[in-house]
């Protein structure tokens, strides 16, 4: 039995309608394996967050430095649908990236969040070390993160200050690592620590290093802390994660520990990882951070040297891009900006 032309048209329209409805449902509800990046909030490291100072330096020289030294962030939108992704892409305000770059397979969202939090904590510790090292302030070795199932677990505590290993004074993380690596797995070491102002001796039996079974393993990450008990540095960055705030936190600490204002009262923003030795490292999302800084009112942006080429590709008009390779260069550039002298640009 052959269908009439009218019946065929009706069937064709019905099939088309089903396809359209299916496409709309997929586009509206189906999640795509991408995340969207966009400019995030900026935070003045010389200001407050939720009513508390972002950086506090008890015993500092300048309790209330003025101006802005804003750390910058990138907002990440997850769980986007096909239609949302298309709209974001056409808007030009977002950058789509494969989701697995930010949420690796095998890791839960909570595990990723915890890792970002750990990176920020490490960035804060490095900022303290970089500021004290730059200012040539006396430093000591603090106990940072303690590995799970490490020999030190339950014996040492985070923020203990390590003073000596088997009676040998230690002042740097390198000295601690040298002392521990020279021991063999199974040996017991005597660690003299200062815990909340009280000195005590802790005995720890070393395990084997995962990367060198013949060397001793304590299972802690040393960090640089102030050897002056009158100097206490604390941070309050809220739920911001990752390592890229290191440079701006370092500069805020330096501003608190030196007279005058690094910014000259100007609105400065920036980004960059930091290590205790002062080197500024590359970060991701530089173009989004530049836009966020400009929108917030910044007149100059401290750009890690490795990010300069990318930054120049999409720099907002009116935002001065200052190239920095280490903390000393950043401080010198801010002083030059304040005095009107030449400074390095991207």
From TrEMBL:
<dbReference type="InterPro" id="IPR014721">
    <property type="entry name" value="Ribsml_uS5_D2-typ_fold_subgr"/>
</dbReference>
<dbReference type="Pfam" id="PF13180">
    <property type="entry name" value="PDZ_2"/>
</dbReference>
<dbReference type="InterPro" id="IPR008269">
    <property type="entry name" value="Lon_proteolytic"/>
</dbReference>
<keyword id="KW-0378">Hydrolase</keyword>
<dbReference type="InterPro" id="IPR020568">
    <property type="entry name" value="Ribosomal_Su5_D2-typ_SF"/>
</dbReference>
<feature type="active site">
    <location>
        <position position="244"/>
    </location>
</feature>
<feature type="domain" description="PDZ">
    <location>
        <begin position="143"/>
        <end position="197"/>
    </location>
</feature>
<dbReference type="Pfam" id="PF05362">
    <property type="entry name" value="Lon_C"/>
</dbReference>
<dbReference type="GO" id="GO:0004176">
    <property type="term" value="F:ATP-dependent peptidase activity"/>
</dbReference>
<dbReference type="InterPro" id="IPR036034">
    <property type="entry name" value="PDZ_sf"/>
</dbReference>
<protein>
    <recommendedName>
        <fullName>endopeptidase La</fullName>
        <ecNumber>3.4.21.53</ecNumber>
    </recommendedName>
</protein>
<dbReference type="GO" id="GO:0004252">
    <property type="term" value="F:serine-type endopeptidase activity"/>
</dbReference>
<feature type="domain" description="Lon proteolytic">
    <location>
        <begin position="198"/>
        <end position="337"/>
    </location>
</feature>
<dbReference type="GO" id="GO:0006508">
    <property type="term" value="P:proteolysis"/>
</dbReference>
<dbReference type="GO" id="GO:0030163">
    <property type="term" value="P:protein catabolic process"/>
</dbReference>
<keyword id="KW-0645">Protease</keyword>
<feature type="active site">
    <location>
        <position position="289"/>
    </location>
</feature>
<dbReference type="GO" id="GO:0005524">
    <property type="term" value="F:ATP binding"/>
</dbReference>
<dbReference type="InterPro" id="IPR001478">
    <property type="entry name" value="PDZ"/>
</dbReference>
<keyword id="KW-0720">Serine protease</keyword>
<comment type="similarity">
    <text>Belongs to the peptidase S16 family.</text>
</comment>
<dbReference type="InterPro" id="IPR027065">
    <property type="entry name" value="Lon_Prtase"/>
</dbReference>
């Amino acid at each position: 039995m052959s269908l009439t032309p009218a019946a065929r048209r009706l069937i064709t329209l019905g099939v088309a309608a089903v396809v359209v409805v299916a496409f709309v449902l997929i586009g509206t509800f189906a999640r795509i394996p991408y995340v969207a990046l966009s400019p995030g909030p900026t935070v003045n490291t010389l200001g407050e967050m939720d009513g508390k100072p972002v950086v506090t330096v008890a015993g500092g020289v300048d309790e209330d430095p003025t101006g802005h030294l804003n750390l910058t962030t990138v907002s990440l939108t997850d769980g986007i649908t096909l239609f949302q992704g298309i709209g974001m892409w056409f808007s030009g305000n977002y950058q789509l990236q494969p989701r697995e770059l930010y949420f690796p397979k095998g890791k839960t969202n909570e595990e990723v969040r915890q890792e970002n939090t750990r990176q920020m904590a490490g960035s804060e510790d490095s900022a303290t070390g970089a500021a004290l090292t730059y200012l040539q302030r006396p430093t000591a070795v603090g106990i940072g993160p303690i590995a799970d199932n490490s020999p030190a677990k339950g014996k040492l505590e985070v923020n203990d200050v390590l003073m000596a290993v088997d009676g040998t004074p230690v002042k740097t993380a390198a000295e601690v690592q040298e002392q521990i690596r020279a021991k063999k797995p199974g040996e017991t070491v005597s660690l003299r620590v200062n815990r909340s102002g009280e000195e005590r001796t802790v005995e720890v039996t070393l395990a084997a290093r995962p990367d060198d079974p013949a060397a001793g393993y304590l299972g802690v990450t040393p960090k640089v802390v102030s050897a002056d008990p009158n100097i206490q540095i604390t941070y309050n960055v809220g739920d911001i994660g990752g390592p890229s705030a290191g440079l701006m936190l370092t500069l805020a600490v330096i501003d608190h520990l030196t007279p005058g204002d690094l910014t000259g009262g100007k609105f400065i923003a920036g980004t960059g990882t930091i290590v205790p030795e002062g080197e500024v490292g590359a970060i991701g999302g530089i173009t989004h951070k530049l836009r966020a800084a400009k929108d917030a009112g910044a007149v100059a942006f401290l750009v890690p040297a490795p990010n300069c080429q990318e930054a120049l590709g999409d720099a907002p008009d009116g935002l001065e891009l200052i190239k920095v390779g280490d903390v000393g260069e950043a401080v010198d550039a801010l002083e030059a900006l304040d005095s009107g002298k030449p400074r390095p640009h991207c």
